[in-house]
Design goal:
Helices cover about 60% and strands about 0% of the residues. By secondary structure, it is an all-alpha fold.
C-alpha cells in the first residue's frame, strides 16, 4: 500500500491539487483520498481505480504465481 499512497500523493502534488480539489476532480470522497495517501489497507478497489484513472493507471488482481514469475524474469 505504501507504493500506492506515495504514487497518488506525488502525482496529486505534481498536479498542484489539494486533497479536496483532487477528491472533487476524481469524484470520490475526501476520506477516500486521505485513506489512499495514508496507506490504509481497507480500500475499495473501484474507488482506488477511480482515483488512479486520472493518471492513466488502474489496479488489478494479480496472482501470486504471476508475481513469482515476474520476479524471475526481472533484471537484477
Amino acid at each position: 500500500m505504501k507504493a500506492l499512497s506515495k504514487f497518488v500523493k506525488e502525482k496529486r502534488k505534481q498536479a498542484g491539487l489539494t486533497q479536496e480539489d483532487f477528491a472533487q476532480r476524481t469524484g470520490v470522497a475526501l476520506t477516500v483520498i486521505r485513506k489512499i495517501e495514508q496507506g490504509k489497507g481497507n480500500l475499495n478497489l473501484e474507488k482506488a481505480n477511480q482515483v488512479l484513472k486520472m493518471f492513466g493507471h488502474v489496479l488489478a488482481p494479480v496472482s501470486l504465481k504471476q508475481l513469482d514469475n515476474d520476479d524471475e524474469i526481472a533484471p537484477p
